[in-house]
Amino acid sequence: QLVAYEVKRMRAEEGNKQKILRHIKELAEKLYKNENPYPAVTMHKVQKPTEGCHLRLHQKPFPRLDEGTVQWIIDQATAKLQTAPPAVKVEKKCMVPSGPPIAAIMERNGNALANSARRLEVVRNCISYVFENKMLEAKKLFPAVLRAMKGRAARHCLTQELNLHVQQNRAVLDHQQFDFIIRMMNCCLQVREGCVKFSSVFLPLQKLSPGITQFAYSCVQEHV
Fold first, then answer.
1. What's the CA gap between 182 and 204, in Å, rounded?
2. What is the DSSP letter of 196?
3. Domain SBF1/SBF2: where (predicted)?
4. Sheet of 212-215, strands arranged across
5. Which of 4, 151, 188, 211 could form a disulfide with 99 if both were Cys (CB 3.0 to 4.6 A apart)?
6. Distance between CA atoms of residues 130 and 123, nearest Å
C-alpha cells in the first residue's frame, strides 16, 4: 500500500520533519492495530454505596433472588461459552494496485548506487596501481580514495583488495608503496571500525635494508 499510494506523499514530506514524524506515527498505529486486533477487556467497576444511603426515604427494598433461577442462568451462559467457536478475526482481503514502477521510486537512490560503485572502482584501481608500482597513477587517485574511506563499503573493499593482492604475491613493497598502503589503513581506522583484521589477515611488508623488513601491523597495532 505504501508503494501504491504513498510515494507522492513521501516525496512531498522530504525535508519536513514534522510531516515525516506524523506519517511515521500513523504507520506505527496501523501496524500496532494489525498486531493487536482485539481490544483489552474493560472491567466494569461497581461503585460502593455511599455512607448513610440506607437511611434515605423512598428506598425500594432489593428483591429476593431465587437461587434456582440464578443457577439456571449461570448454567445456560456456561453452556454457550463451551459450544461457541473461538473468536477469530475475519481477514479482509483486498487487491492492492502495483503502483508506480520501481524505477520511479528508486531514481534518486539509483544515482547514489552509481556513485558508490564509482568510488569502489577508484579504491580498487588505486590499490592495483600501488602494487603494480604505478605510483603516478596511484597519486592521482589517492585523495579520492581517502575521501571514500568515510563509507563502510569502501572500507570493506579496501580490506578485500589488500587481502587479495597479498595472497597473490608476497607483497614485499618499496618504501613509497608501503607508505601509501599504511596511510589508507590509518585513514580507514580513523573513520571508524574497519581494518582491525589487517594485522592478522594479511601482512604487507617493506624492506628497510638487506635482511631487515617491516610489517604493516607494526604501524597500526598502536592505533588509538
1. 9
2. G
3. 99-224
4. 172-173, 205-209, 212-215
5. 4
6. 11
Distance CA 162, CA 167 (A): 9
Between residues 111 and 125, which one has the greater pLDDT? 125
Q: Quick: pLDDT tens for 2-52.
A: 767 777 777 788 888 888 888 889 888 888 888 877 666 666 677 787 777
Say if CB 4 and CB 98 are below 8 A apart: yes
| Grid cell listed for 210 | 638487506
Residue 191, judged by CB atoms within 10 A of its CB (0-12, 13-18, 19+), counts as: middle
- Rounded CA gap, 221 and 224, in Å? 9
> Among candidates 163, 144, 169, which has minimal Cα distance to 154?
144
What mean pLDDT do residues 192-196 have?
Answer: 52
- H or E stretch at 190: helix 175-191
Domain coordinates of the chain in residue numbers? Answer: 1-35, 105-222
The C-alpha cell at 108 is: 534518486
**Given phi > 0 = left and psi -120 to 50 = alpha, else beta, which region is 139?**
alpha
DSSP conformation class of 207? E
Q: Taking a C-beta distance cutoff of 8 angstroms, is the pair 194, 159 a contact?
A: yes
What is the DSSP secondary structure assignment for residue 195, as one 8-state letter? G
